[in-house]
Amino acid sequence: MKTQYFRRPKSFLSPQQSIVAIGAGVIILILIVLRLALPGVFTALFTPLWNLGNFFTGQAHRTEDAATLEARVLALEAENETLRNENRALTENSDDETRGIVAGVVARPPLSPYDVLILGEGTDQGLYEGMQAFSKGIPVGTLESVSAGSARVALYSSSGRATEGWVGEARVPITLYGLGGGAFQADVPRESGVVEGDMVYIPGPGALPMGVVVAIESNASSPRSLVRIRPMANPFTMTSVSVVAAPSL
Amino acid sequence: MMKGVLVVAALLSPFLFPFAVTLVLVAAASIVFPPIALISGIVTDLAYYTPAASFLPVASISGLLISVVALFVRRFLKARIIGG
User: Fold this and answer.
1) Preceding peptide of A110 cis, ω within 30°
2) CA B36, B10, A111 angle in degrees (round to 5)?
3) Does A159 contact B53 at a Cβ distance shorter than 8 Å?
4) Which of A42, A110, A154 lies nearest to residue B47, judging by beta carbons?
5) For A57, nearest residue in chain B (alpha carbons)
6) Do B15 and A46 count as a contact with CB atoms less than 8 A apart?
7) Of A8, A18, B8, B66, which has the maximum CB count within 10 A?
């Protein structure tokens, strides 16, 4: 009689691996709950690592040529004097509300896969969710998940985020769609008269310029054109932002 | 030793290097230790994720996918070594 051999089908995970997988699942669940309940815990935990990253980035920039730096210092000193005078004049004519709260950026793209800035200031410094963040006067995003000592800024350029705005001197209404990495796109009617170099605005106290049209892609068979927009503020180089209360629309 | 360094580098990478570099490090480390991709993805989302920036926690999902792929690659490699 022929001997029959039955091979037991091999399971994907062994019993030990299954226990480890279940344990890992429980830990992940606890972490998610902790993250939702206390968003600042992990930011506080990770801040030393971000500071370490910023330190290394700073060291890398110090290898610039000394002569080039000296020339830059002279040029910057002259520029600084002009700006100081300008700032004095503006400060005298403004109140605290319009100046906002200056917050240091701890982490920025491309460190993060999302277009998010991590700020080193939180509710202790007067920040709260929904405030608008500006980089050198350019609106860049809104505050999300604010904790005592930190906050996350979701940039307008976050992938898929829609922001209402206008384009050009004629203020053609558009919806800006974030593409990630600081870029935007929008579609406008082909006959709208939008051209390359037109400014893009979003609502704030008035219309705030935030980008420039760099390319217009149109198809003869389509009544609409695709507009590519470059932001005026580069999220990759932001070291601090000014945070103000969002305007009520 | 090198394997350990690779795994630690993949874990710290979301705080020190651009995301593209993190992705490469995690992919390399997950061949050594498949769960590192999922762990790194979760750490990235714990640090950076906010629903306003993305509907889905993309880093965790990508980590899970890389871990599963790495697990299959490891099994395939083992089978090839034993079979060969």
Assistant:
1) yes
2) 120
3) yes
4) A42
5) B16
6) yes
7) B66
- In angstroms, the CA A195 to CA A163 distance is 20
The conformation of residue A161, written as its DSSP 8-state character, comes to -
Strands A132-135 and A240-244: antiparallel
Whether the predicted model's global pTM rises above the 0.90 cut:
no
Which residue in the block uniquely carries the two structure tokens 């051209």?
A: A195
Query: What pairing do the DSSP bridges indicate for beta strands A183-189 and A162-167?
Result: unpaired
Q: How many helices (H) and strands (E) does chain B have?
A: 4, 0
Average pLDDT per 10 consecutive residues for chain A, totaling 249 residues? 64 73 82 78 81 69 68 80 71 57 88 88 88 89 87 89 88 89 88 87 84 88 88 88 76
Whole-angstrom distance, CA of residue A123 vs CA of residue A125: 5
ipTM over cut 0.85: no
Q: How far apart are CA A208 and CA A122, in angstroms?
A: 25
Amino acid at B6: L
